[in-house]
Amino acid sequence: MQLSSISLALITALSIQLPTQAETITTEQENNKEQAIERITINHIISPNHNNIAGAIVALNKEEIERQRPFSIKEALENIAGINVVGEDVFSTHLNIGMRGLNPRRSARTLLMEDGMPLYLAPYGDPSAHYSPPIENLEYIEVVKGSGQVLYGPQTIGGMINFVTTPVPTSGVTGNVNIELGTNGFQNIYARAGVGSEKGGILISATDKSGDGIRENHQLDISELSFKGQWNINNSHTITAKYAQFKEDSNISETGLSEAEYATNPFQAPTGKVDGFIQQRDTLHLIHDYKINNDVVLSSQFYHVDNDRASFRQINGPGEAIEYCPTVDDLSDVPGARRALPATEDNSQICGGRWRPRYYNYWGIEPRLTFNHQWLGSDSEAIIGVRYHREDIQRHQFRGYDSRFQSLDFAKTYTDFDQDDNRAGWHQEHIQIDVTARSYYIKNAFKAGAWTITPGLRLEDITATTDYIRTEGAAPTNPEKRYTQSHSELLPGIGATYEINNNSTVFAGVHQGFSPARPNRDIEDENPDASYLATKPEQSTNYEFGFRSTEITAISLDTTLFLTDFDEIVVQATSGRYVNAGESRQAGLEVAGQLNFADLYKTLYNVYLQGNYTNLFLAEFNSLKEIRDDSSENIIKSASFEAGNRLPYAPKHMASLALGFETAQGTVDARIGLNYVSEQFVDGANTTIPSESGEEGIIPSHTIFSLTVNYRPTEQLTLYINGQNITDELYLVSRVDGMVAGREQQFSAGVNYQF
């Protein structure tokens, strides 16, 4: 593509480099804010001057995070308007985040980043979230939902969340040690130490968490070690480097429960002791910030991620038996020696199952130029950038019917064995996906009096090649086994703000949303030469109109009206199968605010009310869709839908409310909160009668209460207690692969020491 080579040549000519920390506004800029309209560096997505941001935003700083003491990322995000978080695991490592009525499954339509770097298994080829950074290591959580998304991608429909990690110290030695113990076998040990000066520094952090999962026989264990360094070469150049290694070795049953199983014991997992999820993620992130002068900054980043993950399960569907079990006690390769046994803890020990190892490798380079300038008589700031991104994905599946297959290393010894070989195991699947993506963007903020107008444009140029090397236990021979999809999408956006005064801003925006073609494994028939189904990219037009203010004494208020007009929305029709469902619309109102009684009554202590509410009054399909089975003859009624049906996993009402107390010196603060989510449909057919498998029906509404108390006897020491679901509410969170209950009552106590 000619535009690709021209843009790359332009950026290369400027030089290839990039940033780290949000640039602090100098005293000169503070006195002349028209010179610092939108200064954003790579690792931040929200500029320091919030008044000029044309969209709904939230920036949780470290103090607010510590005041909440969220047990995981989930608790921090569910207190933000418009966000629906489904918790399937205790630590919320496998995030399920939906914004403004979008399905939260694996956060596929919410762009997740860490220090400005994409976080998915593969941002284009498999946008699934199986990792989130330790919350103890975060300095900010930034959320952006409006037209500012044109600077980022590839997901620009629902919104963006950026996790900003702790910066390298710049003055002496600093550190932090946190030890937390709790019910359900929970323990959390976190340590951080660093040293630095005006020339730079180094920061090392380590996290280790373990505990019981939500369901029985589940044990979770995660750890992360990270190194971060910064070198301030001179007043113009800063280099930051970060390396992190994350590991998980957990027992998780991905298959949920049937209606009968849930009624008997909603937390049971008979195969949980052998089901598992293992993962290792290695990340390298380099950032260079080149301050050419006071008005021009060239920032560049390079990132590389290796992520190996594998899951093992023994049950394919809720309520089913263990399918892969031996017929004889001898574990040799006896031809055809396979049977199904009831799903019990004892049977799980002697049976095999299904391993799904997947390997993800992606890297990218992104230079970005930011400069202040005068155009058409207006003080302006422009941001121009380009990103080159590559992905290599390998998806495997092994199946076997004796207990040795509970070892991934043993399962791999059957690589390239066909199902027809009549052995105790075989290589079921091997899919290779290669993605090359080029992104180009430009954005300019025009400042004229109280107005700031910010148009922007993004181009996504994507080529993805999928090669089905093995399917259904053999090598396919049909021509469809390898195909290439190419997409070039031009994504415009424009936003505007009007500063009524220093404390109040009205904003509005519209932008074109985009999500690449959803990866799809589904095959029309159970033979290796079947045809393969693929989805088209999703597109949307997103509108926002909002108001934020601190004008009234003691009150802060943010409110936003939004509309998302979808073209070719993708929905999960049946388990593992995704289809384009045509047009849909989501519209709603978000309100968030806080009332501080200390400012109202001039007291030394503060009692505050903090809350948010989301009313998703419209979330429906605009067209008819009939989903047929593999034979193409029979319509699957539970998967099909009509115009006017409500979107799956799109609760109409969500609310959070917190009552808090703080002493004048900050020695003690306490907070009790509640989170409410109204009922949801789980399929496009809006099925209300539960199926025996538990995969159909509604998810009832629920209200969950939490409690946090912090006590600081000294400036360095904090003692705290944390309670989640303190009333021990039994509630349902998902029916994707059967019924899954939410977390039971959880209490913990911790000690935090900073130096």
From TrEMBL:
Pfam families: Plug, TonB_dep_Rec_b-barrel. It is found in: Cell outer membrane. InterPro entries: Beta-barrel_TonB, Beta-barrel_TonB_sf, Plug_dom, Plug_dom_sf, TonB-dep_rcpt-like. Residues 52-159 form the TonB-dependent receptor plug domain. Coiled coil: none annotated. PANTHER family: FE(3+) DICITRATE TRANSPORT PROTEIN FECA (PTHR30442:SF0), IRON III DICITRATE TRANSPORT PROTEIN FECA (PTHR30442). This is TonB-dependent receptor family protein. It comes from Colwellia asteriadis.
